[in-house]
Amino acid sequence: MVENLEDKIYKKNFKNILIKIEKELFKYTKNNKVSGFLVYLFHVILCTTTFFYMFLGEINFFFYFSLFVWIITFCMHFYFKGCILTKIERHLWNTKTWYGPWTFLFNSVEYYLNDKLSINLKNNIFICWGIIISTLLLLKIVFYN
After folding, report:
1. How many CB atoms lie within 10 A of CB 6?
2. CA 81 from chain center: how many Å?
3. Domain spans of the chain?
4. Which residues of the chain have pLDDT under 50?
């Protein structure tokens, strides 16, 4: 397949962003593995705190702020063709097999099935997860007393 000019520019610019982030973090950690772990911690903390507040917290400013973070994050997944934080983690750890926190689920399923999951199936799992979360949050907003 022939890559168009827009995709080439996107990939070049994205690679430059990854290198800039790598250099900035390296100033403090002196180790890309540690930098990747810090990005991973930020990733997990951001996702879990907003997720749990949206489902367990009251509907107030923090709920809507968390919802806004999740909507922006979900939209960024489509713009960056995946999670920006996972892509940074992959770059810092120099691996192609990392899918962020989803890796643990995917590896468990692959082990259980004794077969690899396709990229398409992994993307569909992510999209279904987003639809389920969105539906549950909409129901919470509509039926909240």
Report:
1. 8
2. 10
3. 5-143
4. none
